[in-house]
């Protein structure tokens, strides 16, 4: 297979489906999608900040001039998929998200991500390192106008688009967006390509089940939440990563190792060189929490500190980070 075209911007995927890609797909560099029907269109996700979302909305104009936006679907609640919502809400667009995602789209969450860039110390340094390019101040959290649970069918100018809730997996309210007549899927962050997935919510079993559901769908083109346009081979590969982590973490739990010892000894094999490999810290913690619900769930900032340490950003803080 030839290397995918992973240039930033609008990609025509055929049959009225498009992707807006943002290399390199690492922290905050998310993808969006656009599905057109007769005289209207549906946008899948906004971006991490307002300038990037504005740039995207301008870049989509060759399509949206003839097919104005009628609907926005947020695949989940993470800021890199919802922070630009206010720019879309100011148009006459209905915003849809799963009920579980909607609960987490709050001003508090949006502001917390902006604040972490201003912290002193290792965590602030790491946040400035990964979130440096993004303008995270002054964003107004904008949730959906309508929510759904389970499955929802949306009519986009005479064309059926299916929303399928598969979370909790990556986050509590993950949904995927299926365009049956184009055999195409927007997977949101249920699929990371070229980087390491992170199970903020889990259980990982549910994420694996979501990937199995995708593998069973009649689709040939899959747009991941991060990374180049892909297909089922990339879904299978990410499934293999999750199974590897889950199997090894379970084994170490049964052997009596604590979380940090498990993280230190897991052998990722061909996945060891994946970008953002430090996300292993959260993935192992997630498996341990399923096996022992009394293990505390640290907030994301604590987890970010562990990820930074694991990636060698600040090795000294790793042993003292609490789990
Ligand atoms: Zn994302």
Automatic annotation (TrEMBL):
Residue intervals of the Metallo-beta-lactamase domain = 29-226
Signal sequence residues? none
Among the Pfam families in the record, one is Lactamase_B
Q: Which Gene3D superfamilies match?
A: Ribonuclease Z/Hydroxyacylglutathione hydrolase-like
Which UniProt key words apply to this protein? Hydrolase
Matching entries from SUPFAM superfamilies are given as: Metallo-hydrolase/oxidoreductase (SSF56281)
Q: Name one GO molecular function term.
A: hydrolase activity
For this entry, the protein name equals Glyoxylase-like metal-dependent hydrolase (Beta-lactamase superfamily II)
Naturally occurring in which organism (per UniProt)? Actinomycetospora succinea
């Amino acid at each position: 297979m030839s290397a995918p075209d992973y240039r930033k911007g609008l990609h025509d995927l055929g049959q009225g489906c498009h992707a807006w890609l943002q290399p390199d797909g690492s922290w905050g560099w998310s993808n969006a999608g656009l599905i057109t029907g007769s005289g209207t269109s549906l946008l899948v996700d906004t971006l991490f900040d307002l300038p990037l979302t504005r740039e995207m909305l301008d870049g989509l104009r060759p399509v949206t001039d003839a097919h104005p936006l009628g609907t926005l679907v947020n695949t989940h609640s993470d800021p890199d998929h919802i922070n630009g919502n206010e720019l879309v809400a100011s148009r006459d667009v209905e915003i849809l998200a799963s009920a579980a995602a909607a609960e987490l789209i709050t001003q508090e969450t949006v502001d917390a991500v902006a604040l972490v860039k201003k912290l002193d110390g290792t965590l602030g340094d790491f946040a400035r390192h990964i979130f440096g390019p993004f303008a995270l101040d002054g964003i107004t959290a904008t949730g959906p106008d309508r929510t759904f649970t389970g499955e929802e069918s949306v009519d986009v100018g005479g064309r059926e688009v299916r929303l399928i809730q598969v979370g909790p997996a990556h986050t509590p309210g993950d949904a995927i967006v299926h365009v049956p007549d184009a055999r195409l899927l927007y997977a949101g962050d249920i699929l990371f390509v070229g980087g390491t997935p992170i199970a903020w919510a889990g259980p990982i079993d549910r994420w694996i089940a979501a990937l199995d559901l995708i593998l069973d769908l009649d689709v040939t083109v899959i747009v991941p939440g991060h990374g180049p346009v892909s297909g089922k081979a990339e879904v299978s590969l990410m499934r293999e990563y999750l199974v590897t982590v889950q199997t090894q973490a379970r084994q170490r739990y049964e052997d009596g190792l604590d979380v940090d010892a498990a993280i230190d000894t897991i052998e990722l094999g061909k996945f060891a060189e994946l970008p953002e490999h430090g996300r292993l810290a959260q993935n192992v913690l997630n498996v341990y929490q399923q096996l022992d619900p009394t293990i505390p769930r640290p907030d994301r900032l604590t987890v970010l500190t562990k990820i930074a340490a694991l990636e060698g950003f600040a090795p000294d803080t790793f042993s003292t980070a609490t789990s």
